[in-house]
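Continuing the batch. This is chain 6 of the set; chains 1 through 5 are on the previous pages. Same settings as before, nothing changed between runs. Recording input and output for traceability.
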Amino acid sequence: MNKIAIIGLLLFLGLHQTIFPSVDEITQDSTAENSESKPDTTGAENFVYTFKIHQNIEPSAFRFTKKAFKQAREKKADYIIVDLDTYGGLVNIADSIRSAFLDSKIPVIVFIRNNAASAGALISIAADSIYMKKGSSIGAASVVNQEGKIMPEKYQSYMRSTMRATAEAKGKKVVVDGKDTTEVWRRDPRIAEAMVDPRITIKGITDSTEIVTFTVQEAIKHGYCEGEANNLKEVLKEANIKEAKIERYQVTTMDKIIGFLMSPALQGILIMLIVGGIYFELQSPGLGFPIIAAITAAALYFAPLYLEGIAQNWEILLFIAGLILIGIELFAIPGFGVAGVSGIILVVTGLVMSMVDNVVFEHELHTEEALKAVFKAFFIVTLSMFSGLVLSLYLGKKVLTSNRFSSLVLDSVQNKDEGYISVDKEQKSLVGKTGVAYTVLRPGGKVNIDGEIYDAKSEIGFIDKGEKIKVISTSSSQLYVMKI
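Output for chain 6:
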């Protein structure tokens, strides 16, 4: 089995493992679902749609939430249960999920399986009901950076107001004490603020030295949890949802394919294929398959990013405009100047910005995270482009001259009596002769030798028009030259 077949097999196995789970994975998923003790759905009166957020609150979590809510609406669910376990994440993404909860016409129930910290606390208090598993916690919503250090006051102020507004959005409830009837907040806004700001004092809860984090019983006592539940069945029981039909959000095959294509490693390979395809097409114009490979790689790179709402139209247009400018520089303008440099910048910018979700730029709170995301994407793109170019230069001559790729070279018989003549003898006589570059050689072009124009390729680097050249070899009716 040759190397290409081995590489193809490895890629297939990797894709197969990503898209189609193993028997063990299926068994584990099935066991996990059965452990929830799904209630009998025969004659169910209520339809419950449930999905998990067991990750940092990042753009992918918001896209996942939107998909799940859309399916719940389409299926006319009576309740949405969010199985939550997170240490937090980006505040602006949490705010988007919070808004989805508050705006939902379908009642939203959050089941805190373990942690609802920071941005997770904000999401939780936006739900209509909260249930917590024994040993879980909610709170600690101060804004911190990647190193866990508390951010300046302006960040805390924004988070305090958002937490307070979310608690207030849940409204008040009537409390009857003997003959006295009063209205109290379902979720005290001051407690929500105290989850952010350690300076806030609330009698019996915090003494103004620490931010508030509730255990299950503390959350129940102070109105931040409706009850304790250890699994989905108990959540339904506590929420008094009887005879429920439950449907879980299922990750589709297309979701898995998109996730596979969006992995940084594969994105790097696709960028290398784009560079390699363009290089080989320029080396041997008319082959066809290198440019087709480049176009296919570009489509596989941009399509999942576009479908997920990460890549925008203008970012894809930047990439296309960059390729056009590079093409103009190579084929229409002598030398390599403004058009070529601008094209490279546009191509890199298009690839980089398409990889970065624009939502990270929507709030100044996350300028640092946005810059890190851009730097990470820039590193992947530039490293992949450089690797692709180096690999193409190394393999270029070997691939095009290898017997395994002889089918790519025109080998049809051209009989003399049909009007064809041999030029091999004439070209061999040119070896050692000198002339000038009739066009720019990048590396292919034309040269003038003794007043005759010949197709030629530069053996080393580019050669500008008018520079002196020397023929050093000939192969397959092709002159190879070098600059004197």
